[in-house]
Amino acid sequence: MIAVIxxxxxxxxxxxxxxxxxxxxxxxxxAYIFLTRIQLFVEFQPRLLGLERSPGLTDIVVAPLFGSAxxxxxxxxxxxxxxxxxxxxxxxxxxxxxxxxxxxxxxVLGKFLGLMAFFLVTLLMIATMPLSLLLGxxxxxxxxxxxxxxxxLLLAAFVAVGLFxxxxxxxxxxxxxxxxxxxxxxxxxxxxxxxxxxxxLFAYLSxxxxxQSLLKGVFNSVDVFYFFLLIAVFLILTVWxxxxxxxxx
Amino acid sequence: MSADILIDVQHLYRYYGGVCAVNxxxxxxxxxxxxxxxxxxxxxxxxxxxxxxxxLAPSAGGITVGGIDILESPKAAKANLGYLPExxxxxxxxxxxxxxxxxxxxxxxxRHQCDAVLAKTxxxxxxxxxxxxxxxxLSKGYQQRVGIAQAILHAPAVVILDEPTIGxxxxxxxxxRDLIGELxxxxxVILSTHILPEVQAVCDRVLIIHQGRLVLNDSVExxxxxxxVTGLRIALRQxxxxxxxxxxxxxxxxxxxDSNRFLLHHPPDRNPADGVVDLAVExxxxxxxxxxxxxxxxxxxxxxxxxxxxxxxxxxxxx
Lengths: 249, 319
Hints:
Strand order of the largest sheet of chain B: 6-7-8-3-9-10
Distance between the termini of chain B: 41 Å
Shape of chain A: globular
Order of helices and strands of chain B: EEEHEEHEHHHEHEHEEHEHEEHEH
Structural class of chain A: mainly alpha
CATH topology of the domain at 228-293 in chain B: Alpha-Beta Plaits
Order of helices and strands of chain A: HHHHHHHHHHH
Helix content of chain B: 25-40%
Number of strands of chain A: 0
Oligomer: heterodimer
Number of helices of chain A: 11
Distance between the termini of chain A: 29 Å
Largest sheet of chain A: none
Number of domains of chain A: 1
Strand content of chain A: under 5%
Largest sheet of chain B: 6 strands, mixed
Number of strands of chain B: 14
């Protein structure tokens, strides 16, 4: 059942011009960033050669590219997640799912995976750019894999948060702005930083912090666990919220 | 007989905040029965149907579908249900075939059976030529039919249709009624409406709900029988004195409707039609119309809901 719902969501996305527009815009922006990083690398290459333990191609091109992709997708993800449940509730199609022999968990996971399938396409398209460097140069594939995993987990977290906020309201735009706000807050929450009390907690909550360490190629189970926890919490909250629909007072 | 009861609703309550939308409703539906739920707008019809379909949780009470409790095992119970909500749950940007295929897969119909099921359902709902069209571009009547197709696709034991004929033209209404008549064979049907003739045309049994309470639960046959002829409407070219009409055997009371028309009241078991015709010929009254007046379901409906309204008002005044 999860696959049936995910399949419909995936097809519905590609049936709308929005998905194609997003793919195109993301690709153009990141291609530009990719090219500027390549130029930077070419300019600095002679000087880097003389340095001991100098940063390599992966550090200068791939990590910043994935880092920018994270920020671009933070802007884009709410536009796709905002409609997932809010619009279905508004048009009444959610009742089709409620009346079908499907559990709420299956509905939520179906929608989550459908959207993740779309973002996987986006990620693969982004990944082709650094992978093309293999034609003429060498990449630190370990660091590349960690960064790719980080970007994937980051997107999954974006989708989980967006899905929950979409289930709260029946106005897609409200869900959109709320998701954007929530994601941005989770991104910048580490900014207070410093040595103040509680700074450690803020740093732990920050998505950016965990994402950055994966980009550097440091595969730390704490970071991966953070993302899994975030995703699970918001998916469970979404299930609860949909269950509450039937109990509305 | 209990094996034949497909839906059993016991003491159903539903509150929205402090407002009681459904108040102690109990009824059951047998296999093959078409049940009509009547009631004014806001009476609690839709809430009741939503609860039976499992899309709304009751505040209290129990519902079983084919013997399975819908609150305890919703997935198993919902497999026996087909539900058309008040607004058909259609994805406007999908094609009819895509949509029906999705619904079939949601109801766990095996992939290789889907084609056959779709073809059968589309022919039943007269959607044969619409398979490749976008749902958003279909007319209201077609959309409604897609909604019904979605509800009967998986051959559920019980089909719940919430106002299936709303917004349709008379020809489409007739088609939908024919379809419901056809469904009667293998499904039980629960339909809600506020169009009274519809109930008389397609239903076996009627529930009238008013202010959340069940005020009538009776078979249409019985109702029609009770509402047997209680008056004769006649039109005469040369009308005689009222007294002469009054004198005909069986006539209780004569009401003059206009200069040529009269309404003759009579007890249900004594129809004065023969006497009227004989006398009209004998005395050359020029009879050109003779119509039995029946007390319609509409009158029963108005009487029940108006009466309850007064009772409800009193209760609210003295809690």
